[in-house]
Amino acid sequence: MISDLSLRWILTLVFAASAVFCLYRCVYRPRFTGRVSEGLHALMCAGMVTMAWPATMSFARTPQIVLFTAAAVWFAVTARGHGWFAAAHHTLMMAAMAWMVFAMPLAMAGMTMTAPMTGPEHAGMDMGSGMTMTGHAPVPVAAVAVALTVLFLVAGLVWLARAIDRARGEQRPGKHTWGLAMEGAMSLGMAVMTVALV
Known about the structure:
Keywords: Membrane, Transmembrane, Transmembrane helix. The protein is mainly alpha-helical.
């Protein structure tokens, strides 16, 4: 799905660090709902790591779709106390995860595998397995992917702006500031993953 090996590793590190941070917050959340939410975020980050690597893209698709659909419902019901923006963003992230797992085969169906060749005239998506993937996803899949990319890009910038504004009033960034930055990083990472489906 992600053609560039270095980008795969960057996304892997971003989502792995986010998962660790979510698990850290999960331990220290005083309320049960907060712990469940952080645990779901950690699972989402793990899912994003698997999506970045072609060898694991088809891993346990149906359980993932069920899990992330249920997670979207969970955030739609429980996250309202954190403000409409956070509630909408978390719900959208989980729904997008379920959609990406579902849409991945549809996106790949519009592409073809070819043997690796050298030279700019044979540029394509290096899948890291000696093959190259070329072509485009079906129009409906691409349209949804573009819409999600725009939404996650905007949301990521909003989260990062909030983190920067809060950090200005702190001598040392606290957990809340790091949490805002983590939200921004996850959203921008989601934008990269969704644009790869176009």
